[in-house]
Design brief:
about 240 residues, mainly alpha, Leucine-rich Repeat Variant
């Protein structure tokens, strides 16, 4: 009798995601992630699966092969790409130095599929940031100068790992490169990282950066950066901000 062949891991994950999908939630997510014509997520498709639900499935497939992860990363469905990226984080965290370099290289070779802010935010600090900490960070400069919105967001979000180690220099350096970025999602990301500099590293370093650059920063970036400041400090910075 012929043995039944197991499903490829990518197919099994797809099946499990669909088993917990929700059409109503998919519609909400499509709206939340701006998938309409001309919006940043134009054309992205959703199954309607929560991040905790995706993480639970990922945990059951934490030893998936890279070729199976690649198949999911090429998916038109957002949750399948997120599952692939979360599996990469799992593999990276358990890998030796050689394995970590392979995953870092793979991640940067596939940025065309890392095409939403949540996909970046949940993974870039844990792969790109962790790998580059203590190494040459010229790759962050290249990403910050990219024409690709998501690569620019990877550049600034990767520095979150540095901040968590008490090192804010790279965040401030990349933030300066992105001061005049045209996209609101970069304004929010840079402002958020500046806020984290003040919270986790040094409020003096954050204020020093703001004293030099607040007058030319986009208002959204500045608002995010000073969100936790006392009202008087907020007013002082906002009075000198650009329109």
């Amino acid at each position: 009798m012929r043995k039944r062949r197991n499903k490829p891991e990518s197919e099994a994950i797809r099946s499990e995601l669909r088993s917990v999908s929700d059409e109503a939630k998919a519609r909400i997510l499509a709206s939340f992630f701006k998938t309409g014509p001309g919006e940043y997520g134009e054309g992205d498709l959703f199954l309607g699966v929560s991040v905790p639900g995706i993480r639970k499935i990922v945990k059951a497939h934490k030893n998936a092969e890279m070729q199976e992860i690649q198949k999911l990363l090429r998916s038109k469905y957002h949750e399948e790409r997120l599952a692939a990226l979360l599996m990469l984080v799992e593999l990276y965290q358990r890998g030796d130095e050689s394995r970590k370099q392979d995953i870092y290289d793979f991640y940067l070779a596939n940025t065309a599929s890392i095409n939403s802010w949540d996909l970046v935010d949940l993974t870039a600090p844990h792969i790109v940031g962790e790998y580059l900490h203590g190494k040459d960070t010229s790759m962050l400069t290249r990403l910050a100068h990219s024409k690709n919105l998501w690569e620019r967001r990877i550049a600034i979000l990767s520095t979150y790992h540095f901040i968590r180690q008490g090192d804010c220099r790279e965040t401030l350096r990349i933030a300066k490169l992105l001061l005049q970025d045209p996209h609101d999602l970069i304004h929010k990301a840079v402002g958020w990282m500046l806020r984290e500099v003040g919270k986790r590293c040094s409020i003096e370093r954050e204020c020093g950066f703001l004293d030099r650059h607040a007058a030319v920063m986009p208002r959204t970036m500045l608002r995010y950066a000073i969100e936790r400041f006392p009202a008087e400090m907020k007013s002082r910075y906002m009075r000198g901000a650009s329109v």
